């Protein structure tokens, strides 16, 4: 199973389990996670959710072969599995904890903006390389990164798309705490266990109130990003970026305005 789903002691754990492909996410994996999140949100026995990967890698982001295979007219509509997953994550009323070790690329970083408690190992590396692929930010990252880190630092990360480490992610407010890699998962599980023991209604209400002021803006930003992302996805710059990726060469964007 490319996504391991386990439930124990009131915690649903979703684990990326495709290490041979650096935990790159396929449409089927998104569907599995979306279905699990929706089911957990209505299951009174589940009081917290934990998303994690492997000690050496969280996720390399979208599986580009799988992703590009499905690109076409209307490819970025909300019926796509990635949209279903992100909608389920953003709309989940229960607390979501994330534990990140190794690389978190693209949507691997974006999804963290929609979790509640985010912890990372000291070996974590984050990147949002949308510009490097001839694309633009996704799923409200243009809004949420700037809100968390400030405009200038967000511009550096989103425009240049370069990777940054655990300490910088902490300084930017993307993660709440940096831990030794060997301690990360146990700590995140312990935090989720604390949530399980607290009054469920109180936790849900606190989360809803914290998200209330940004809900409409997040929805509007996602729509605006998606409109542009969809157009850019079939553009010349993206074609050059993807072709270069599969040909294992550097892309040449000099011929584009």
What would your notes on this structure say?
It comes from Massilia orientalis. This is Enoyl-CoA hydratase. The protein is an alpha/beta fold and 257 residues long. It is 46% helix and 16% strand. It contains 11 helices and 10 strands. The protein has helices spanning 27-41, 64-69, 81-91, 107-110, 141-149, 151-160, 166-171, 184-197, 200-212, 215-233, 236-246, and strands at residues 3-8, 11-16, 48-52, 57-59, 96-100, 103-105, 117-121, 125-127, 164-165, 177-179. The strands form 2 sheets. A 6-stranded mixed beta sheet has the order 1-2-3-5-7-10, with helices on both faces. Strands 4-6-8-9 form a 4-stranded mixed beta sheet. Strand 1 (3-8) and strand 2 (11-16) form a beta hairpin. Helix 1 packs parallel to helix 3 (81-91), helix 5 (141-149) packs across helix 6 and helix 5 crosses helix 10. The model has no long low-confidence stretch (mean pLDDT 95).
Short description:
The protein is 46% helix and 16% strand. It contains 11 helices and 10 strands.
Strand order of the largest sheet: 1-2-3-5-7-10
For the termini, the CA-CA separation is 44 Å
Strand content is: 15-25%
Provide the low-confidence segments as ranges.
none
Largest sheet: 6 strands, mixed
Computed Rg: 18 Å
Please tally the helical runs, counting DSSP H or I stretches of 4 or more residues: 11
Provide the succession of SSEs: EEHEEHHEEHEEHHEHEHHHH
Quaternary class? single chain
Helix and strand content put the structural class at: alpha/beta
